[in-house]
Amino acid sequence: xxxxxxxxxxxxxxxxxxxxxxxxxxxxxxxxxxxxxxxxxxxxxxxxxxxxxxxxxxxxxxxxxxxxxxxxxxxxxxxxxxxxxxxxxxxxxx
Length: 94
What we know:
The chain is of the alpha+beta class. It has one helix at 2-17, and strands at 33-36, 44-59, 65-66, 69-70, 73-89.
């Protein structure tokens, strides 16, 4: 019952705040985390990360087992397609 309530609250949260979420090409993200290596910022290291998160809730069939224990429902969160990009500019020629 707790998991069902959590799923409902999560669903309502996504409905209320989902308007500000963009799946592709968010203009709010900008250029990631930029760490300057000198005072004028011409040399830097930049880190960009992006990922896809899946949240699943399943009502199991009667008698379903999970890890040897009977379960009425299953809830999990999965992190998929995670990407991390590191790049730097240490010379104006490159």
